[in-house]
């Protein structure tokens, strides 16, 4: 099978890793086989951020929320380390506000909002609300979707007529 890894030229990973991700997509219907390719790509890249994002998306759409959350946390930790983000939200918030147009900050906010979505799917509604509230404080344009999730999580239950 001939793979065209060049069509993913924006991915900053070796061709072998691009090929593994393509194979994962091509074998989507066979979860165990496609997951094997995702895990191999993760193992061989030392958790490259592009591969972590691809793995998160794969795991989320396969409804493997537990591992999607683990992958998102790894991505957040990697960005936090690279950008030297503080752990404390009150210290981190102004940094995120001032740098929200920077690619790594946007990726961090996307991943953080995604972790809220995954937590909601896992039934951890209070944690999901907390994360969504934090991201919404920074995201007045709702670029990261946290406001939508927060609206869903805080919507009053509809009454039956």
The low-confidence runs, each spanning 5 or more residues with pLDDT under 50, are: none
Which structural category do the helix and sheet elements fall into?
mainly alpha
Number of strands: 0
Radius of gyration: 17 Å
The overall average pLDDT, rounded, is: 89
Query: What order do the SSEs take from the amino end to the carboxyl end, as H and E?
Result: HHHHHHHH
Break the fold down into its secondary structure elements and pairings.
Layout: H1 15-26, H2 31-45, H3 49-61, H4 65-83, H5 89-98, H6 103-121, H7 125-138, H8 146-154
Helix pairs in contact: 1-2, 2-3, 3-4, 4-6, 6-7, 7-8
Textual characterization of the structure:
- There is one protein chain.
- By secondary structure, the chain is mainly α.
- 69% of the residues lie in helices and 0% in strands.
- It contains eight helices and no strands.
- The longest helix has 19 residues, at 65-83.
- The protein is globular.
- It starts with 14 loop residues before the first helix and ends in a 7-residue tail after the last helix.
- The mean pLDDT is 89.
């Amino acid at each position: 099978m001939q793979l065209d890894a060049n069509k993913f030229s924006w991915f900053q990973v070796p061709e072998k890793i691009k090929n593994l991700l393509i194979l994962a997509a091509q074998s989507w219907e066979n979860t165990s086989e496609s997951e094997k390719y995702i895990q191999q790509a993760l193992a061989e890249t030392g958790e490259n951020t592009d591969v972590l994002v691809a793995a998160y998306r794969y795991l989320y759409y396969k409804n493997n929320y537990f591992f999607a959350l683990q992958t998102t946390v790894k991505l957040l930790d990697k960005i936090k380390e690279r950008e030297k983000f503080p752990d404390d939200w009150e210290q981190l918030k102004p940094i995120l506000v001032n740098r929200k147009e920077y690619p790594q900050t946007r990726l961090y906010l996307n991943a953080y909002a995604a972790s809220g979505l995954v937590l909601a799917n896992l039934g951890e509604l209070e944690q999901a609300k907390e994360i969504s509230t934090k991201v919404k404080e920074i995201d007045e344009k709702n670029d990261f979707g946290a406001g939508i999730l927060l609206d869903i999580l805080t919507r009053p239950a509809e009454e039956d007529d």
